[in-house]
Please model this.
Amino acid sequence: MAQYALVSPQGELLEIRTEAPNVDQTQLAPGKPRLLEIVDVNASFNPDTQVREGPDIVVSPTQYRRIYTVRSKNAAETDVLKQRILRSLNAIAQDKIGNIMSQDQQFLLLTAGMEGIFNHGLDRTTWPAALRNVFNPLFNTATNEVKAVYTVLRTKRQEVNALSTADQLAAYDKDAGWPT
Model:
């Protein structure tokens, strides 16, 4: 949708409108506000790798031009992107860990473990076989799968920390390579 700027004779923006002028603005008397077409220059950019600054305003008899400068992200801005990706990796890992077992299995693991520790001590070999048969498979599955998730997380953190440009960080696939 086209936009139009109502501009004072001094070049100040008074308001932005969506309706087009119904008269030729170059024919208006001097000292009257004009309704000029808004033209954005360099308005598009990739927010993952670039920063858009501005706009600088240039007013001509027929256009209100907003000129933007687009530059690559600097080191501090790239570091912010890197920290966002690292936080995202941590969230993915926590989600994976939370989904290793159903809530029923988590409850069973917790209650079997508490019963074993409180009634029979920390040495699981002294627990009754029925209790070990419930606890050990759940514990081993959880432990192994959590270790697998943390192994991937450590590797992905190292990969991200080795990246140095916003382009590299933007291209990094944080969702690939996780255990299912």
The mean pLDDT is 94. The two ends are 45 Å apart (CA to CA).
